[in-house]
Design a protein that fits this description.
Number of helices: 14
Strand order of the largest sheet: 1-2-3-11-12
Strand content: 15-25%
CATH topology: Beta-lactamase
CATH superfamily: DD-peptidase/beta-lactamase superfamily
CATH architecture: 3-Layer(aba) Sandwich
Helix content: 25-40%
Number of domains: 1
Length: about 450
């Protein structure tokens, strides 16, 4: 009996003191008479733009997409008809509870695809899920932490941390040094394998909450996102007086949310040397109203100058780490077959994010993949977010790969030229990104 009571007391201590709890999440609202998801009335979104677009009027006519403004004027959109149709098809083919995807052009920020779909709620589709931060950022936030470690703390992808555990969770014990158990690996390895303990320990040792929050805000978290439709800001809460929760924030456990549009924009900024553009959906802005035969020639929508949100050095380092995710990390099987052969004719870089949590409709498994391609000369950035029952085999990285495969089939000759140039530049004999240099030597090393 004493042993039983002792065991129960230990388990109670384990769950109360060691295993942290996570907040209850709230998925997008279910369909009801007074909820117009198609109107994208996102909480916290900026609805004050002059003559805004009406999201519920988006439609395809021939070889282009159009949408009405509040004034009745018709705007021609940047959406690529083929890519938009493929994105919608990929989200519709499986019974995904909630899913959304965004594709951006690099470096100008043109939105090539913007889609969402819910098997539970037919009205929670269209652009609503793509523009609201309904999912936790999960391990995608590790990109922010890595950028902060480089820009704020002066680390590099080769900086090493000694760790144990932290494969799928993060506990207080994972932050304590144990020379007998610890292995040592690099920051680049931590991003490639999404190793929670590596990111957490480096953040605890080298960053303050203010520094991590500063990088997060620079990359758009907690900030309004300028766009042609209202966008709900991505949330960020960096705990200042709880070291464990600060470490968990850096590793991507709760405390942050992300919209698919923001996810694609984050990947584009990293791919483009730390420059974050203002994404845009309006290709041409006619002056007349709908049905007015006297409309003048449409004017091209003006583009705002990009902002430097990361140093070029930090952006290049994080981009290189993202290439490791698909080459040897958590997305390797999505982008390579069982013989190690690439599934795409060009290389892609990205970051996975996986997190399970209790939402208002039961337990949900979130899956993210944000990235860019081709690695050597990026022309497109993307984000895919899915929410399903935990354990579903369909992952966001698989959807992203299929989306890129279709993008390649319908791409312009310029992408083919970029792909051939990239192949020539990164021959097997002299790879631009060296797995051996950044990851191989660190993976099996033990602290001696």
């Amino acid at each position: 009996m004493v042993k039983v009571l002792t065991s129960l007391a230990f388990l109670a201590f384990y769950f109360l003191a060691i295993v942290p709890t996570h907040p209850r999440l709230q998925l997008p609202p279910s369909s009801s008479a007074d909820v117009n998801v198609g109107a994208i009335a996102c909480e916290g979104a900026d609805n004050d733009r002059p003559d805004p677009l009406r999201a519920d009027s988006l439609r395809r006519e021939g070889g282009r997409y159009l949408a009405e403004r509040e004034s009745g004027a018709i705007a021609e959109l940047t959406l690529d008809p083929r890519l938009q149709a493929i994105t919608e098809k990929l989200l519709h083919r499986s019974q995904i509870q909630y899913g959304a995807s965004v594709v951006l052009s690099i470096p100008d920020g043109r939105v090539l695809a913007l889609a969402g779909r819910s098997a539970l709620d037919s009205r929670a589709g269209g652009t609503a899920l793509a523009l609201s931060s309904w999912a936790p950022a999960a391990s995608v936030f590790k990109l922010v932490s890595a950028a902060s470690l480089i820009d704020e703390a002066g680390l590099s992808g080769d900086t090493r941390a000694c760790y144990h555990g932290g494969v799928s969770d993060l506990r207080r014990d994972n932050l304590v040094d144990h020379p007998r158990w610890d292995r040592c690996a690099s920051l680049a390895y931590g991003i490639g394998k999404s190793q929670n303990a590596i990111l957490a320990k480096l953040a605890i040792q080298h960053l303050s909450p203010e520094q991590l929050a500063r990088t997060g805000h620079a990359l758009g978290f907690g900030e309004p996102l300028e766009f042609d439709l209202p966008v709900e800001p991505s949330h960020l809460d960096v705990p200042e007086d709880n070291p464990l929760e600060f470490a968990r924030t850096a590793a991507g456990f709760w405390h942050s949310t992300l919209s698919p549009l923001h996810g694609a924009l984050l990947a584009a900024a990293i791919a483009d040397g730390g420059r974050m553009v203002t994404p845009y959906l309006i290709e041409r802005a006619p002056r007349g109203a709908a049905g007015d035969d006297r409309q003048s020639t449409p004017e091209a929508a003006p583009a705002l100058p990009p902002r430097q949100v990361l140093s070029p050095e930090a952006a290049a380092a994080v981009a290189e780490m993202m290439a490791g995710v698909t080459r040897m990390g958590t997305a390797r099987t999505a982008f390579h077959d069982r013989h190690g052969r690439p599934r795409l004719p060009f290389s892609a870089a990205g970051k996975t994010g996986t997190l399970n949590g209790k939402a208002d409709r039961g337990y949900v498994g979130y899956s993210w993949f944000v990235g860019f391609a081709p690695v050597e000369h990026p022309t497109v950035a993307f984000a895919v977010a899915l929410a399903n029952k935990p354990g579903r085999r369909l992952k966001a990285a698989d959807v992203a790969r299929e989306l890129l495969a279709e993008y390649a089939l319908g791409s312009s000759p310029s992408l083919d030229d970029v792909t051939e140039a990239a192949r020539a530049e990164t021959s097997p004999a002299t790879p631009r990104w060296s797995k051996r240099r950044h990851l191989g030597r660190a993976a099996g090393a033990r602290r001696g």
